[in-house]
Structures are given as structure tokens and as C-alpha cells.
Amino acid sequence: MNVHQLISILTIAIAPGDGGSRQYVEREIARILEENPSIRVKLERSEGHIVLSSEDELELEAISQRILEAAAVEIGEPKVAFRETIRKVAEAEGKYIRQTGGSGNYGHCWLRIEPNEPGKGYEFIDEIKGGVVLKEYVKPIDMGARCAMESGVLTGFPMVDVKVTLFDGSYHEVDSNEMAFKIAGSIAFKEAVHKAKPVLLEPVMAVEATVPEEFMGVIIGDINSRRGRIEGIEHVSASQVIKAIVPLAELLRSSHNGRPDYSMQFARYEPVPPSHGSGDNAAPVFAVRPRGPMPKDHSSSVRPENE
User: Phi/psi at 6 (nearest 5 deg)?
Assistant: First the structure.
């Protein structure tokens, strides 16, 4: 299983029924993944839950059903893994000063943040000159910014594609330490993000639907109702192939019977429209699909990127 290339656009939480079953559930998951090396699922532990993340809703459901049959657990519905990023350049100061009788804590830095190229992730640049911040405190500042990125500022989702530059600061010969500079780095990063037009991102899927020509209007209407964008239509044999870009959250909504066969794969992350929760004080609505068997005429697949 190559988790390094995994794009976790869906998550599902498993709550073991008692303290002793957690290890059993984890062993069962490990056994399933060993039996099926093609499955691309990442396992994490979070506040008493086991969280599985993947690109593939069907794989998450298959593992969930196996776990339900093997142990007494509670399993949540699939949730979309949103992300956050920024749209502007901003600067902010981070200062952490505490005095508690003995030696104190002093950390001080200035950070500049800016949007990074899509897909490039996090980048840290050290532009300190003249020794205003000692080299030994640069890495803690970097770590503080990284930690702040993990929890975001809008809704708690991790941030992506941000470039951080350390360009100024100061230190105290007695009171400065790594912890103080890590906290200062986190403070500066969060303050800068609030100034840098943060936005919420959602995964969108490249979808293809093959339908008889007489049903094209219905299917195009359905795609439009899911905030989808038609990318093209091709005539193949006696059918029409509709290609579209659709937010994953909308595809997880309850589907109606008679929906055509389709295939989909992850395309990219895009900003959530303001009316759907990307404002500074808004929270995303987690789209879920009721658990249960797929309709017989509904065949879907989510293929890993670069398959």
C-alpha cells in the first residue's frame, strides 16, 4: 500500500465498542489490507476513534462491512476531507514572552506567508540576516508554522500550498528557548493567515456518464443541481457520454434509482463557493450518503490518480 501517493478525499470514523476491541479492530484492518494490497487506505488514530481515509468510497464501505461483521463497533458515514489555503500575501508578528520566577520564555519572529503553487504543499524559507534570530531557533519556528497548518483557521481542516518566509525577529540571551520560538511561529502563522484571505477547498471529481440520448436533459439537469460543470459531450454508438466536473460532497448525496452508469476519479481541489460555506465564519456541510446496497443499475468506481 503506497500511502505517500494517497489523496485522502474521504474519511470514515470507527469507534470500538469497548477498550479491548480497539486492538482487535486494528489487527482486522491490517489483515484486510494485507489480503488486498491494491487497496489504498490510510489508518490513523484520533481521540479514541480509528479513522480510515481514502480516495475510494467503495473501498471504505467494503472495509467497514468487514469490520462490522467481525466486531461490535460504531461506524460513521463517509465524510469529505476538505482543505484550507490562502489567496493573498500577508505578514504578521509572533511574540511569546512569559516570566515565571526563574528563567523565562522569550520567542519573537516575523513571518510572511503567500500562496504556493497548487500541489506544491508547504515551503519554508529562512531570510534572517545579521543574526537577529539564532540559527537554533529557526527550525522551531518552522515547526510552529507547520503545526498551525494542520488545524487550519476556518473550520479546522489542514491547510495546503502555503509558502512561509521568516524575515525578522529577536531573541533573549537568557530566556529564549526552542519551545518559546515554536509557539511564536504558530502565533505569527495564524495571525498572517487571517490577513491572507483564507478559503475552504473541496475535492472535485471528473465524472463520465453514459446515457441514451433521450435522457440527456435529465442527467445534465441532475449534474447542474449538484454544482457540476459540463466539460463535454461525445456521441458513442447509440449513447451519449457526458463529461463533467462535480464536487465530491454533492456526489455523496442520496442518489435516486435509475441513475446511469458512471465512472469518476479525483480531479483536484477547488474553492467552495461562498454560498456553500467558504466564508470566514461559515462551516462546511458534511455530505453523507446513507449506508446500504447500491441500486442494481448503479455502477460506480473511483480510480486512484495516476492509475
Answer: -75, 130
What are the structural domain ranges in the chain? 3-76, 88-196, 200-303
Grid coordinates given for 17: 465498542
pLDDT in tens, 150-191: 988 888 899 999 999 999 999 999 999 999 999 999 999 999
Residue 22's CB is within 10 A of a number of other CB atoms, namely: 19
Given 1.10.260.40, 3.30.230.10, 1.10.3720.10, 3.30.70.3040, which CATH number is that of 88-196? 3.30.230.10
Amino acid at 168: D
3-76 and 200-303 share one CATH topology? yes
In words, the CATH class of domain 3-76 is alpha beta
Q: What would the pLDDT profile of 61-93 be if each residue is shown by its tens digit?
A: 888 888 887 777 778 778 888 999 999 999 999
Q: What mean pLDDT is reported for the chain?
A: 81
DSSP β-ladder status, 122-126 and 162-170: parallel
Q: Which of 141, 144, 114 is nearest to 126 (CA)?
A: 141
The one-character DSSP state at 294 is P
pTM of the model: 0.75
Report which DSSP code applies to 190: H
Best CATH choice for the domain 200-303 from the list 3.30.930.10, 3.40.50.11810, 3.30.750.24, 3.30.70.240: 3.30.70.240
The identity of residue 192, as a single letter, is A
Q: How far is CA 56 from CA 26, 62, 63, 124, 208, in A?
A: 19, 10, 11, 32, 16
Task: Give me 281's grid cell.
Answer: 465564519
Distance (Å, rounded) from C-alpha 103 to C-alpha 158? Answer: 35
d(CA 86, CA 33) in angstroms, rounded, equals 36
With contact defined as beta carbons under 8 Å apart, do 145 and 112 qualify?
no
CA angle 96, 98, 104 (to 5 degrees): 115
C-alpha cell at 181: 520560538
Q: Please, which residues bridge with residue 217 across strands?
A: none
